[in-house]
Design brief:
Elements: H1 2-12, E1 16-20, H2 22-25, H3 45-48, H4 51-56, H5 58-74, H6 79-89, E2 95-98, H7 104-108, E3 113-115, E4 118-124, E5 131-133, H8 134-141, E6 157-160, H9 169-181, E7 184-188, E8 207-210, E9 223-225, H10 229-239
Parallel strand pairs: 1-2, 1-7, 2-3, 7-8, 8-9
Antiparallel strand pairs: 4-5, 4-6
Length: 240
């Protein structure tokens, strides 16, 4: 019943923009961050994933991200990613705004993907701005503890938004534009705890949520489905 209701909302309230978080990728075997078994239960993010940590000990930050990048590259898009790509191709989803850095939406076939927290696809030189591909980064990490910029020799920074950094301006501007134009924002796999992205649904005409467990905006949603992203979206696609 809930999937049928969500299908109706997607049909009736266009354009529909989707906002995804870590919960959509757990079904691909990628751990989330804040659950009792999540990544931050094992390590302190301010020691391995903050800009201060990078400036203080970039080799430790890269040790964390080297392992994480290998995990993300080994993961495959799941049925939720594939369904969202199919809905976009059918003209029922305008874009996906994602908090994830894993590139799984793009690999699943989504074309309009806004990565508000950056991506593992590259690393950046904080000194001269040069980009290095993830393949080049991993090749360097096989022989040294931190990758270096080939142009100026500085230590590269992971191409993700670290704690203490601002979100990329172009991405947040595009995400805000999409949210404000949306008649429906569908949140999938996010507890909506990380700002400013958690505020995007408030910009849309209406809000629907698919997430395991509560979110900060459940009371603002016209529909909340507490369930698996893959199973729920597959049922929605069948109903459409």
């Amino acid at each position: 019943m809930s999937a049928a209701r969500l299908a109706s909302l997607i049909r009736e309230r266009q354009p529909c923009v989707v906002l995804t978080g870590a919960g959509i990728s757990t079904e691909s075997g990628i751990p989330d961050f804040r659950s009792p078994a999540g990544i931050w239960a094992e390590v302190d993010p301010f020691e391995v994933a903050s800009i201060d940590a990078f400036r203080r000990d970039p080799e430790r930050v890269w040790d964390f991200y080297r392992k994480r990048i290998h995990t993300l590259l080994a993961a495959e898009p799941n049925s939720a990613h594939v369904t969202l790509a199919a809905l976009e191709q059918a003209g029922l989803v305008e874009a996906v705004v994602t908090q994830n850095i894993d590139r799984l939406h793009t690999r699943a076939g989504s074309r309009e993907v806004v990565e508000v927290h950056g991506s593992i696809r590259s690393a950046l030189c904080p000194k001269c701005g040069r980009e290095e591909t993830v393949e080049g980064v991993l090749a360097q990490l096989d022989i040294r503890p931190a990758p270096l910029c080939e142009a100026c020799g500085a230590i590269l920074k992971p191409g993700v938004v670290l704690f203490g950094e601002l979100l990329p301006a172009a991405a947040i501007d595009r995400a805000t534009e999409l949210a404000r134009s949306a008649e429906l924002m569908l949140v999938v796999g996010s507890s909506l705890e990380v700002w400013p992205i958690a505020g995007l649904p408030l910009e849309a005409g209406s809000l629907a949520i698919v997430n395991v467990g509560p979110t900060a905006l459940d009371k603002r949603a016209v529909l909340k489905i507490d369930g698996s992203a893959g199973e729920t979206l597959a049922a929605v696609a069948a109903a459409l």
